[in-house]
Write a structure and sequence with these properties.
Three copies of one chain form a homotrimer. Chain A is of the alpha+beta class and about 260 residues long. In chain A, about 20% of the residues lie in helices and about 30% in strands. Chain A folds into two domains: about 150 residues, S-adenosyl-l-methionine hydroxide adenosyltransferase, N-terminal (Rossmann fold, 3-Layer(aba) Sandwich); about 90 residues, Bacterial fluorinating enzyme like (Elongation Factor Tu (Ef-tu), domain 3, Beta Barrel). Chain A contains five helices and 15 strands. In chain A, the strands form two sheets. In chain A, strands 8, 9, 10, 11, 12, 13, 14 and 15 form an eight-stranded antiparallel β-sheet that branches.
């Protein structure tokens, strides 16, 4: 059985995800389809791109990852397919894969209509293009057969933290279910920056001068989360709500 | 592996859906169970019926579709089973299959207790009757073995658009996750009615005199959605909220 | 295919559940993973424990049930594994299994790092410890191989109803999707207590002097639900909202 993962902003109210699964299983029944989440914030490519790099390494080689956060579906943006670290990725060329595509990635546009549904709508390429592409990939079709090479894939701007006036500056990229605020500052960048010196981390009006290990240690916590990113939490509460923090709020790390 | 799809209004907070899957897999492990959605608006048979005709054609022949929107569970309404286009359907006889049942459909009441759980509750036939029926169907039991023929299945009233005083009149049947308003006016009825003449589409206080192709073309959009129905959207926003539209609001198409 | 069920409070917005599935399928692809729910109220061990006893019997022998409601992850609480009624259970030793563990249950601490991911985070044992344990269990590893015996598992207090001054007294343990209020008073305790005598059931300011059979019989209903517990409902509405009832509100059954 070939594994296909799905990441979308389609939500779980509508039949869209079920329809994609119907299309995949009709083309290739020998697949196991795993939902990552369908609750990416609507049309938030940035959040989807961040999530994607987090989960894909936990799947085995050969897994096909389909990501459909696609606000400009029906326009000029290309559907693409590529391979990295023996994982396959399928989705729109809109920056969704900014964290994953490398300079030497061989990316192909999905253009060969043999590998699409017969009628292509202008609003649901998850069903008409991406699901079939994943199913055919799972059947052993090589990415290069889907269409021409793409040499200028779209990248999102400003997705990495930066050092501004001596201050390591990042942002809140998403909130998890508990209201924990996940930042784009990973432990490697953080540790390189502080270099074992005393530090302060600022978010909103709150300051931390040390890292916690677990969410239950105190009311507000700041820790390296399970994916290696600085994250803010609130024990038995929502950090988002209790601390009044929103997505894209700035996080600053300064040396003392 | 036989595919079984599930459509319910059980939500995703409770263990009901998981329990149905446990029952199915205990009776017949050779099944792949696909969730369509469990977030049909509570007890909204009309919405469920509309969704069902949308997703089932994307599954392959032999798929078993179980639908449990069942506000009168425990009463006189019959559990039924039937086949259409080589697809099987299982659920309550409450109008849920109004868009699918045809005049010559051979419908059977599920009455044979050999194909039910031992104890039948009065509140959870999804577990006690419908899940087992699907599992036994997947094992090759013919629908006619489940019980007697049903000759007068329940139909919902007024589910199709109508021409009233020269105006094609339909309604909003549901909102998708993005707040797009889906109507019951399909492209065939629409095109037959306008017959290539200039037209106006009215919803709430908004008027459209042409169709869009994609959601990102302008703020409010009106397009034929991926399932072939007229749908209203709002780019990067919720049409429902921005335009103040509710389910069952009237949609009118007039000729100029 | 070995069945593994998942019960968590991770929600469906984040990739955590998908990551657990990736870990399981990477270790043991011959598994079918079934979601029970990931919407247990955040950190509510009590609710999770109650749900667990409700759904597990509907799965077949040999099923592995993973439960991760784990507010003190990263602390001293032990990860455990045990078998009951030919079902396997994996999760934190925090009371989660209070309804299932018996005096003679052979419980093992998961301590053998051969059966964990290489790097153990302090915040996501679902991924690092519980998912791998389930996958290895499914491969036939015996529970005793995972670590030493646990002789003093944690139990939750006051999870059963009690007779106080001649009144059978229980509580609302959870609300289902429809807003129905589920209590911890099961039909056996209830029937033993009333012993066929006239009774009154009190919740908030509402009194029932008989049980209903179905939710559609009247506006407010009180019935034995499909799992055998006293439950309060509201036809076409939410009992929680309409009757102003909250979790942990007291339910009293008195004899007349």
């Amino acid at each position: 059985m070939q594994i296909i993962t799905l990441l979308t902003d389609f939500g779980l109210k509508d039949p869209y995800v079920g329809i994609m699964k119907g299309v995949i299983l009709s083309i290739n029944p020998n697949t196991t389809i795993i939902d990552i989440t369908h609750n990416v914030s609507p049309q938030d490519i940035r959040e989807g791109a961040f999530l994607m790099k987090e989960y894909y390494p936990y799947f085995k080689s050969g897994t096909i990852h389909v990501a459909v956060i696609d606000p400009t579906v029906g326009g000029e943006r290309r559907p693409i397919i590529f391979c990295k670290d023996e994982h396959f990725f399928v989705g729109p060329d809109n920056g969704m894969f900014s964290h994953i595509i490398e300079a030497n990635s061989e990316i192909y546009e999905i253009k060969n209509s043999d590998f699409m549904l017969k009628n292509i709508s202008s609003t649901f390429h998850g069903r008409d293009i991406f699901a079939p592409a994943a199913a055919y990939l799972a059947s052993g079709i090589h990415p290069s057969v889907f269409g021409p090479k793409v040499v200028n894939p779209v990248y999102l701007a400003d997705i990495f933290p930066d050092i501004i006036n001596g201050v390591l500056t990042g942002e809140v990229v998403m909130f998890d279910r508990f209201g924990n605020a996940v930042t784009n500052i990973d432990s490697e960048i953080f540790n390189d920056f502080i270099n074992a010196n005393p530090f302060e981390i600022h978010i909103g009006s709150i300051t931390f001068s040390s890292l916690n290990k677990s969410y239950y240690e105190q009311n507000f916590t700041c820790l390296i989360n399970s994916s290696g990113y600085i994250e803010f939490g609130c024990y038995k509460g929502s950090f988002s709500r209790e601390a009044g923090i929103k997505k894209k709020d700035i996080v600053r790390v300064g040396l003392l």
